[in-house]
Automatic annotation (TrEMBL):
GO BP annotation list: response to stress
Keyword Transcription: yes
Keywords: DNA-binding, Transcription, Transcription regulation
Highest classification ranks of the organism: Bacteria, Bacillati, Actinomycetota, Actinomycetes, Micromonosporales
Domain HTH marR-type as annotated: residue spans: 5-140
Pfam families linked: MarR
UniProt name for this protein: HTH marR-type domain-containing protein
Keyword field contains Transcription regulation: yes
A GO term for molecular function: DNA-binding transcription factor activity
């Protein structure tokens, strides 16, 4: 009898590699800012989730603080994010998206969503809904299992 876990593990590995390749194949229009995947993930979190401390951002995107700090510095140099004092603790700072950051995020998000729509064009609404349900469940299981922090 085949072990479903073996095939799930194999498919998970294939997905990770192909998702990286898929993201890398996306082309930003010439007037747009081409973001590395890590920078896009961080800008996405900041633009959609609102200003946050570096430590909260690191937790949210599952990266170490030094990596997030470096990426925030690059985003800040590009004018996509800015820092402001945390009103609840004047010793801390919040990182928030600038108007330009929101625009760049929106353009990149639209490109990503368009590519996903093309990729899933032959899936039925029911298939997309079921995949969404199962993929969300997998992500939630990973988050609550403690595996995410290793």
């Amino acid at each position: 009898m085949p072990d479903d876990h073996v095939e799930i593990g194999r498919q998970f590995g294939i997905f990770l590699r192909r998702a990286d390749r898929f993201y890398a194949s996306l082309r930003v229009p010439p007037d747009g800012l081409d973001l590395e995947r890590g920078a896009y993930i961080l800008l996405s979190r900041i633009a959609s989730g609102g200003p946050a401390r570096l430590s909260a951002l690191a937790d949210d995107v599952c990266l170490d603080l030094s990596t997030v700090s470096r990426q925030v510095g690059a985003l800040e140099s590009a004018g996509l994010v800015g820092r402001s004092p945390d009103p609840t603790d004047k010793r801390a700072v919040l990182v928030g998206a600038t108007a330009s950051g929101h625009e760049v995020f929106a353009r990149n998000r639209d490109l990503w969503l368009s590519a996903l729509r093309d990729l899933l064009a032959d899936w039925t609404a029911e298939e997309r809904a079921e995949f969404t349900r199962l993929f969300t469940r997998l992500n939630e299981t990973i988050a609550t299992s403690g595996q995410e922090k290793r």
